[in-house]
């Protein structure tokens, strides 16, 4: 079992785990919903299907906070937890290492990669370009129904800020960005953004919890929605870029 994570690497978010995935205490008391759901089918998967199942389960656990930066990833425990073979877990960890979500430590195995603030800024600069592209394409392609869905999410975000619910706001934030990517129908950009998001989810959570951050973020997101609703691709791209510039400023303030 791993030692407690260092300050700034883990902790603080409801379902965050402080120990290795699959440990006895975690299975009994601390597993988040994604890990619990992954145990429903106990028939062991193997081969490519097993690898993809392990990748999907681990990525979901990273995004939900069920596993945290610096946490050790033990093959045997993950195989039991996700209902796949150890070979499938090993192959999944190789792929996730290539994505930058996992790192290999000599003589210590794998752990969730710890992303520094400087790295988070660099990743967000890449996101700025891709999110801008998706927003512009969404403005060109959005149907009335899709615009209605975006506006509805925006109203829910407004309510979450008014009610002082940063966790709900954070979830709606992710949903808004997902919808924009879906409307944009840019699969390559979407896949890249999913990978980049996974690497900095911990930093994004900390920003969401910062006092006053949602009041800054909300009008930025509403500006993206409004530009897409007007089918103004230039304004949508600039609104998305402006939002990510704001995120970069906030990240640098955490140093």
UniProtKB/TrEMBL annotation:
A GO molecular function held by the record: DNA binding
Domain of life of the organism encoding this protein: Bacteria
The UniProt record lists the keyword DNA-binding: yes
InterPro entries to which the protein is assigned, alphabetical: GntR_C (IPR011711), TF_FadR/GntR_C (IPR008920), Tscrpt_reg_HTH_GntR (IPR000524), WH-like_DNA-bd_sf (IPR036388), WH_DNA-bd_sf (IPR036390)
PROSITE patterns: HTH_GNTR
Coiled-coil residue windows: none
Gene3D superfamilies: GntR ligand-binding domain-like, Winged helix-like DNA-binding domain superfamily/Winged helix DNA-binding domain
Biased composition, class Basic and acidic residues, residue ranges: 25-40
Protein name in the entry: DNA-binding GntR family transcriptional regulator
Species of the source: Kutzneria buriramensis
């Amino acid at each position: 079992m791993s030692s407690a994570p260092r300050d700034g690497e883990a902790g603080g978010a409801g379902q965050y785990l402080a120990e290795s995935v699959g440990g006895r205490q975690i299975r009994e008391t601390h597993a988040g919903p994604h890990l619990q759901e992954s145990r429903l089918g106990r028939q062991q998967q193997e081969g490519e299907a097993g690898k993809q199942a392990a990748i999907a389960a681990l990525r979901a656990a990273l995004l939900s906070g069920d596993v945290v930066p610096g946490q050790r990833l033990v093959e045997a425990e993950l195989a039991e937890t996700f209902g796949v073979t150890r070979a499938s877990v090993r192959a999944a960890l190789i792929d996730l290492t290539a994505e930058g979500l996992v790192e290999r430590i000599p003589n210590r195995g794998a752990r969730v990669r710890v992303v520094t603030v400087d790295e988070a800024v660099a990743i967000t600069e890449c996101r700025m370009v891709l999110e801008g592209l998706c927003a512009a394409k969404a403005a060109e392609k959005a149907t009335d129904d899709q615009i209605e869905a975006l506006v509805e999410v925006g109203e829910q975000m407004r309510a979450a800020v008014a009610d002082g619910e940063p966790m709900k706001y954070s979830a709606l934030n992710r949903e808004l960005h997902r919808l924009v990517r879906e409307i944009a129908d840019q699969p390559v950009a979407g896949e890249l953004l999913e990978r980049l998001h996974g690497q900095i989810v911990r930093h994004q959570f900390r920003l969401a919890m910062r006092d006053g951050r949602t009041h800054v973020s909300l009008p930025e997101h509403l500006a993206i929605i409004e530009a897409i609703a007007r089918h103004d691709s230039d304004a949508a791209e600039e609104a998305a870029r402006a939002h990510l510039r704001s995120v970069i400023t906030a990240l640098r303030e955490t140093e």
